[in-house]
Design goal:
Blueprint (H helix, E strand, L loop, with lengths): L7 H11 L7 H7 L4 E5 L2 E4 L4 E4 L2 H4 L8 H13 L12 H13 L4 E7 L2 H18 L7 E5 L8 H6 L3 H5 L8 E4 L4 H4 L5 H19 L4 E6 L15 H12 L2 E4 L14 H4 L6 E4 L11 E6 H9 L14 H16 L2 H18 L7 E7 L2 E6 L14 H12 L2 E2 L1 E3 L2 E4 L7 H22 L1
Parallel strand pairs: 3-13, 5-6, 5-7, 7-8
Antiparallel strand pairs: 1-2, 2-3, 4-10, 9-10, 11-12, 12-15, 14-15
The structure holds pyridoxal-5'-phosphate (PLP).
């Protein structure tokens, strides 16, 4: 039986009556009316009113190979008929999950050879918390329980994910973080660097980790978790001195390094993983999003040999897992997604063509009177909107310029995201140069309109 068709007004009324959305102010939504996205192709979306919109965010940083790839639908269809579900508990596996684990090990850094599958980035970070504590228990160091994260980092929305992250509004709701998770400042030079040079500030921010380890007591610290480049926090690209200093500190204290690759993984920086871009040697890498290009929900944790060998050789059962860990249909889609990324050399395309082009084009926006800083790596970009470029003074009510600009963008057929007054972008990796031109030209027009309205 086919579903009855609904007008946009009917869908909005049903939505308003029944649907509680993630990260949404429902009073606000009630007055605006939800935008219903109906279909998509390549880098474009179409809403239920027929507007064509360039998706400058690849959904939520996830549609790496672009929309409308039939091969992924075919892979899902075939796998659903063959084996729609079976679990990976109790010494069972299914062919796509096994093959996907092996394929991921091939593209991961050389010392990372195992994958634990989950259903999302948040579940991956819950797994991280349990795994690092399990590791130190097995090592006979059960006091090593504390995980250090960063203020304004994002690691998901479950209780552990939100606790590992450092988003103040999330912490305010529900008494987070949970005990055993502490935070250090972020390497956000433009916003928080004060009078320091970028390099000095990078060292300062990294050394906050050493201070925190000493404060908590070395014998109590299990791990440090960070995104290579903070995504949801506002595409915060760390100064060049930051990661080398973090590496020194992590090595000195022998704590586990968790690099959250949920956004940076699967090609976004022009390398397979952000860890390769910054030459990091993580012990654990949570992944999701680009793993299936968002076509089906799936996540995982790529586990380095140090932790994997301990869990396997000294472990026993790890009492942890999800019904959908290694879901065969999601894994089949993940495999097909990886095949496309590899055979079409999409990561190479990002590194050699798309990223240099996007970065050079957005750099031109630095001359706009609203733009205080332009920054980015790979196909991640950010524009800081300020009232006064010379003094970096912001607009009085934080977020007004960003929200205004974001809404103007959508009206002009472009999805950008606003984090406060920082406009961020993360388009599909397959975006073509002509589409990058369209993206950047539209942003400039929208900046002009925003400036006009701000007066
Ligand atoms: N980690 C990072 C770095 C993310 O950006 C996100 C989501 O945006 C997550 C974890 C959580 O992933 P999910 O929304 O799939 O649970």
């Amino acid at each position: 039986m086919s579903q009855p068709t609904h007008t946009t007004a009917e869908l909005r009324a049903l939505d308003h009556a029944h649907y509680l959305h993630p990260f949404t102010d429902h009073k606000d939504l009630g007055s605006r009316g939800t935008r219903i996205i109906e279909r998509a192709e390549g880098v474009y979306l179409w809403d239920s009113e027929g507007q064509k919109i360039l998706d400058g965010m690849a959904g939520l940083w996830c549609v790496n190979i672009g929309y409308g790839r039939r091969e992924l639908a075919d892979a899902a269809y075939k796998q659903m008929l063959e084996l729609p579900y079976y679990n990976s508990f109790f010494q069972c596996a299914n062919p796509p999950a096994v093959k996907l684990a092996a394929a991921i090990a091939e593209i991961a850094p050389a010392h990372m050879n195992h994958v634990f599958f989950t259903g999302s980035g948040s579940e991956s970070n819950d797994t991280v918390l349990r795994m690092v504590r399990r590791y130190w228990d097995l090592k006979g160091k059960p006091t090593r329980k504390t995980v250090i994260g960063r203020i304004n980092g994002y690691h998901g929305s479950t209780v552990a994910g939100a606790s590992l992250g450092g988003m103040a509004p999330m912490h305010e709701q529900g008494d987070l973080p949970i005990p055993g998770i502490v935070h250090i400042p972020q390497p956000y030079w433009y916003g928080e660097g004060g009078d320091m040079s970028e390099e000095e500030f990078g060292l300062w921010a990294a050394r906050q980790l050493e201070e925190k380890i000493q404060q908590v007591g070395e014998e109590n610290v299990a791990a440090f978790i960070a995104e290579p480049i903070q995504g949801a926090g506002g595409v915060i690209v760390p100064p060049s001195t930051y990661w080398p200093e973090i590496k020194r500190i992590v090595d000195k204290y022998q704590i586990l390094l968790v690099v959250d690759e949920v956004i940076c993984g699967f090609g976004r920086t022009g390398e397979w993983f952000g860890s390769q871009y910054y030459d990091l040697k993580p012990d654990l890498m949570p992944i999701a999003k680009g793993m299936t290009s968002g076509y089906l929900p799936m996540g995982g944790v790529i586990v380095g040999d140090r932790v994997a060998r301990t869990m396997i050789d000294e472990g026993g059962e790890f009492f942890h897992g999800y019904t959908y860990s290694g879901h065969p249909v999601a894994a089949a889609v993940g495999l097909e997604n990886l095949r496309i990324l590899r055979e079409e050399k999409i990561v190479e395309y990002v590194k050699q063509e798309a990223a240099p082009y996007l970065q050079s084009k957005i750099a031109e926006l630095a001359d706009h009177r609203l733009v205080g800083e332009v920054r980015g790596v790979g196909l991640l970009g950010a524009l800081e909107l300020v009232k006064n470029k010379a003094t970096r003074v912001r607009f009085v009510e934080k977020g007004t310029a960003g929200t205004l600009c974001r809404d103007i963008c959508v009206r002009n057929g472009l999805v950008m995201r606003a984090v406060g007054d920082t406009m961020i972008m993360s388009p599909p990796l397959v975006i073509r140069p002509s589409e990058i031109d369209e993206l950047v030209n539209t942003i400039r027009q929208c900046l002009d309109q925003t400036a006009e309205q701000l007066g």
